[in-house]
Input
Amino acid sequence: MRAPSAVGPPLRDPAAGRRVGLAVTAAILLWPLLVLAEFEPWRLFDASHLAVMAGFLGGFLPPVVTAEFLALLVRATLETLAIATAGIALAFVIAAPLAALATRSLSIARIGPGPGLRSGVALRTVVRGLLTLLRAIPEIVWALLFVRALGLGPGAGVLALAVTYGGMLGKVYAEILESGDTRPARALLEAGSSRLGAFFYALVPAAAQELASYTVYRWECAVRASVVMGFVGAGGLGQLMDQSMKMLNGGEASSVLLVFLGLVVVADLLSALIRRVLA
Amino acid sequence: MSLALEGVGFTHANGERAVAGVSLTLAGGERVAVVGPSGAGKTTLLRVLGTSLKPGEGTVRVLDEDPWRLGASALRSLRARIGVVHQAPPIPPRLRLVTAVLAGRLGRWSAWQALASLASPRDVAGAHEALARLDLADRLFDRCDRLSGGQLQRVGIARVLYQQPDLLLADEPVSALDPTLADAAVGVLVAESEDRGATLVSSLHAVDLALKWFPRLVGMRAGAIVFDLPTHAVTSEMLRELYAAEGGVLPVQGIALGGAADAGTLAQAPLVAPLCR
Output
């Protein structure tokens, strides 16, 4: 090639200054946030605090493994799994079409740009707004609402998960579909394909692994969330834990926690398996 | 079914000027090769013809339509009649060959037909036939990530054959193929254009392929058309000048040129020397 000349581009990385600036700004913004959040981890190690925590944790040992409690535990575990799975399945039904509407990768008008660009942008903005609304309200709030409407039990938990997680899955799906290789979809749109065709023949196959792994991760989160919702009466392990804690039975609570640990490990294995199948 | 560009200019978002003042007219069924050094604007020219870029200046007519005056659905129908062979085949690795090829007709299928074909391929025979023309029939139900780069590039060609477009655009369609296969693949594109009367515009890195298969040559450099001539009127001087920035060495595929010379389509004598280097 040619030797660098005086008129050529300078050899200094033009992005370097911006990067340093961003890092400094982030640090300046983070400091007051930590102060505001009363982030003082060293206080954990005061002698008095340590004693309180030790006493609390001591009550958790040993875990309760009586046949009677185990039967309750198995039933609650199945209930939690059912809530999480049904909730994610419904959330998926909400999220998939909304993500297809919200993703820029399926915009035909952006090619060129051609006719209908403005209405497309408006539609995507509205759908993104809807997704934000769905996930902005925490599932525990939805659960409180649905418990009042449907009464105590898993049904309220399923609906609460479906709404919040529908919003989360939809947003992240839309972003995964934009961040992967979008050329296959664009090539199909440029050959006159419908958006649905480009979605199923190009976008989804290109991103299947990432979509699946995120969905399984969300299922894992749903298991945890369904536990929290159990505290407000939406059934499952949470309700059981709530009862144990109220009766100050730490042994039972720790049995429940061990089941959580098991479920998270199972979710991890499941995710790895699905990724391997899709690889 | 003609194409016409009139004073077309296109500037990328980063301010880089890709083509300027390009005028080009093609009759329906004509076959043209675009040659020139890298960065000459060949890809941009093809993308303007393929209605994937809207030029900032000038007018475009593709298959007798002004694409940028059409409504959304008319533009979609027009695009369904344009088939593009991309240099990097835009095919997700997880797709099976049969699905990748059938996707060529998505522009003509209803959404329902497209979905149903994912469950059970709609036209296995058609996909098989298109792949057979590129010597890949035995891989019909293989996944695309099991293919080499050259094989995948041929799947991209098979998809466009299956699409049966009226306008065939090919952007370096054989860049990943060895000389024999490259020659055969360009031959398939040319035969498709001849059989169905489809217009074919292909950019080619290898000048010898362009000389052998195309009756008309467009030379581009620095975003402009330098020459636009019947192939027999193109001299080795013109070609060497076109590639002057690359040391005047003509990029070739290394195919045997005997057949083309017999056909009498080009003034062979002055060309052989630079081509055989």
About this structure: Residues 230 and 240 of chain B are 17 Å apart (CA to CA). The first strand of chain B starts at residue 3 and ends at 11.
